[in-house]
Amino acid sequence: MDASSPQNDGVLLLPEVLLLRPSALALPFTAGLGAHFRLLDPLDSPEPARSFLSSRCRAVRALLCLFSPALPVKAETLDLLPSLELVVVSSAGLEHVDLPYCRRRGIAVTNASAAFCEDGADYAVGLLIDVMRRVSHGDRFVRAGSWPVQGELPLGFKLGGKRVGIVGLGNIGSETAKRLASFGCNIAYYSRKERLHVPYTYYANVHDLAANSNILVLCCALTEDTRHIINKDVMSALGNEGIIINVGRGALVDEKELVQRLVRGEIGGAGLDVFEHEPKVPDELFVMDKVVLSPHRAVFTPESLEGVQELIIGNLKAFFSNEPLRSLVQYE
Amino acid sequence: MDASSPQNDGVLLLPEVLLLRPSALALPFTAGLGAHFRLLDPLDSPEPARSFLSSRCRAVRALLCLFSPALPVKAETLDLLPSLELVVVSSAGLEHVDLPYCRRRGIAVTNASAAFCEDGADYAVGLLIDVMRRVSHGDRFVRAGSWPVQGELPLGFKLGGKRVGIVGLGNIGSETAKRLASFGCNIAYYSRKERLHVPYTYYANVHDLAANSNILVLCCALTEDTRHIINKDVMSALGNEGIIINVGRGALVDEKELVQRLVRGEIGGAGLDVFEHEPKVPDELFVMDKVVLSPHRAVFTPESLEGVQELIIGNLKAFFSNEPLRSLVQYE
To answer: Is-catalytic flag, A163?
Structure first.
């Protein structure tokens, strides 16, 4: 009997899963996982991590990487795991995983964007309504006691009829598009390739999408191709009234350029859940009413974390049962 | 030739419309209206208003009431206008109009909720996402510089799967329901009577709706029947985790009771665009992170005001041409 067909008569017979996690992380998932898998956790061992991997993990077939963009899953780690066949990632983003390496070695990768996409889309829409309609601004205005004194808050703008360009029509982007369509927005998108069977206009590059949009919503993965995809030229094409919503990753945007344009009035507003050097946020933004600033919370709710745990367990169980993975990342 | 069939050869031949407006109101609409109608404005006359109405307006058939809930259209005014057949109101709410009186005299009333409903629904959804996902709270947290210091903001809650009870399935309520369905919310509603051909669960009273909802969204008109419709019993039925969104009128809610329950943790949160004694807002709310406070902005954008002007002119033109009114209020 091998580890892929465990009997339920002892923890040692459960399939082994190597766990990589930040040391500070409280582990809401451990209990749920421990019932199905034997977790090998270098942080539980007195051995140095590399030595633990070399000595204890040579037969490990599955690696679970928990909320750890700070823990890159790169060649130097993966080289120590000759039996590895699967990397299960608990985030939506995969910028910390060396995908080309995994592809070369035939290692399957799963992510969790399917569990995060609804919350991410809800939050993108919330940020957009907030920027357009000045919700946070109005809340500040009322709390400061300004309403009876200053009277009317400046009007915001209507969502309906606005042209929204979605950058990255993956799970989060698709859910965002579905929601914004119900507000009467006109949806277009940029993606590496055109999606069949979607009712939205496709642009083959972000510049043209920006030039034809009032609003850009950034939902794509951060890769070397998408780093600073929203650069000076794209912001210029979007125009002085344009609005940028970012629920992807901070480095999708040339943040320095964005801040300068906001200061100069060369972009209309922004709703930012992520920042290039978070938790550091550029000071200039703190005094602006046309931005909404959020501490990287778009995809996180108790419900989404429950969904992630369920998806992780589902992927690992599928793997050890030779069934199709639930959220396999497609290499392109 | 009477006033209902004017020739375009002089302003005196345009149909007369009596205008009631607050003295402080800048009139974005006057130019557009002046091309089609001769406006009789008591504020332009040195005569006292009552005397102006008695002497100048006995033949007036149409009254336009501009953004003036502070200017009640009551019997004492209407009694001075024996020829009146139409009251055109520029707001969605009609609490300042004596509808039973108008009904008795056969005076038609139009309102502008059709022009405001999309913005009102957008804002209701924005307030709900904000309360559920702590958007304004997060914005305060980041602006205060707390993110690098305090770390994680507490998680909010997912919208999908929540039971949303819409109080008043009129124009704004219907548009709100349509949007929230795209977020995966389960929609139910209370209305004076059940609507045919809507896919949402109907409750014949607000208490039962609250008992079966996680969230109440208030979109109904303020009348004597709906004043304090959200009272102690309804809040109790909604429960300690329940959320109230109000884009209707402040007096739909027993505000004192709501504030006490928020203080005691007997209601989960609230997104309030309107208040019982606005612009006065209860001080206790200013320090709460579970509420979002908004200075009565839900339905106002440049686009909605343009739509209101268009609707007002459309109703008046239809009236003077004996065509069907565009937004006739149905008496019940």
So the answer is: no
